[in-house]
Design a protein that fits this description.
InterPro entries: Restrct_endonuc-II-like, tRNA_endonuc-like_dom_sf, UPF0102_YraN-like. Belongs to the UPF0102 family. This is UPF0102 protein VA603_05375. By secondary structure, this protein is an alpha+beta fold. The chain has a single domain, classed as Trna Endonuclease, Chain: A, domain 1. 30% of the residues lie in helices and 35% in strands. The chain is built from two helices and five strands, in the order αβββαββ. It has a five-stranded mixed β-sheet. Strand 3, helix 2 and strand 4 form a beta-alpha-beta unit. It is globular.
Amino acid sequence: MAADQARRGATVEAAARTHLEQAGLRWLASNVRYRGGELDLVMREAGREGALVFVEVRYRRSSAFGGGAASVDAGKRRRLLHAAQLYLSQHDALARLPCRFDVVEASGEPPRLHWIRDAFRADDC
């Protein structure tokens, strides 16, 4: 069961990455893990001053109990912010860029993707 969930997660994250790349974002990293938090995708908008985008990918078989974005609660937002801060501390050249947090929620089979730009801000954490 856990292996199936891991495969599903990898498939959905790959689909989210492709979706975002087709929308003009450039991939920088996937599954960046730190103690206390993980970044599913790190992307960058086009242009010299393009924003750094930290993307949380959430999959739900059904949206009957709320979509994936609803599961990004205050605790999850704090963990994402902490992981983003650690990422920026290791990438000086990116630390000066504007940053935002997006969520890509996926549901159903095959998964349908819904990209929520600027889903939350650091001030919300």
